[in-house]
Amino acid sequence: MNVIKKNISKINWSSLSLELIVVFLGVTAGFLLNNWRTEQQQQLLEQKYISGFLEDVNKNINELQQSINSDSLWLKRAVPIIKSLQNKSLAADSAKAVIQMVMTISNIKINTDTYEDITNSGNLNIINDFDLKATIVNYNGVVKGVEFIDKFFYEYFNSFVMPFVFEEFDVLNQEFYKPYAYKSGSFSNMFAGYYSMVQQRKAAYKELLDKSYALKLKLEAFNR
User: Residue 15 domain-assigned?
Assistant: First the structure.
């Protein structure tokens, strides 16, 4: 017992306390440094995603503007044709022009690469701003709606427009197989359906364009 007391009395408590403090500070500093590095990496990754979203939305704005302008011009040409069909006064030459108007279809490629990347990697929560994150999620919900309409338009085109054209119209000679095929209800319904699809697509593109502008403003504000 006396030996233990003597050994204890020989311990340099001041030195031991200093060593413990140094170890504690070292562990704490290492922990804080690791947290700082993790936070820095997350901030860099968040900035990368923000830049990616901004690049995608700028591309989408350009594509949407062009497509909306194109659909607007098409609809403007189509209005007098719709009226002629309603009045049953459509001329043969105008009917041929109608065939040209419905024989092609196009859609746009909506850029969603960054959203797919961030969701597939499980990093969506790395966007710290809740309002911005909600806007991004909502935006891509509208994108899905546009993609659905584009898909439905293609199905209509393949199921109704092209079968009618190939059955009733000689594409090479630009003539109807039957002289008054363009006066039929099938012709009117085919064109009216196509007209309606263009209207719906334009409305969907316009909604997405508005959402694109709103998202762009928030991304640019976050990026400052």
Answer: no
State the residue range of the domain holding 153: 49-223
CA atoms within 13 A on the CB side of 180: 6
Cβ-contact 215, 135 below 8 angstroms: yes
Q: Which pLDDT tens digit goes with each residue over 169-188?
A: 999 999 999 988 999 999 99
Cβ-count burial of 198 within 10 angstroms (0-12 exposed, 13-18 middle, 19+ buried)?
buried
In a domain, 33, yes or no: no
Over the stretch 99-123, which tens digit does the pLDDT of each residue have?
Answer: 999 998 888 889 999 999 988 888 8
Domain count for the chain, please give it: 1
Q: Within a 10 A sphere around the Cβ of 65, how many other Cβ atoms?
A: 13
Q: Are 153 and 201 in contact (CB under 8 A)?
A: yes
Which residues have C-beta within 8 Å of that of residue 122, sequence separation ≥ 6? none
16 falls within a domain:
no
Asked if residue 148 lies in contact with residue 156, where contact means CB atoms within 8 angstroms, the answer is no
- Contact between residue 186 and residue 164 where contact means Cβ atoms under 8 Å apart: yes
Quote the longest CA-to-CA distance of the chain.
125
pTM of the shown model: 0.81
**Parts of the chain with a pLDDT under 70:** 1-43, 224
Under a CB-based contact definition with an 8 Å cutoff, are residues 130 and 202 in contact?
no
Pairing of strands 169-170, 175-176: antiparallel
Interior/surface letters 116-127, b for 16+ CB within 10 angstroms, e for the rest: eebeeeeeeebb
Inside any domain, residue 38: no
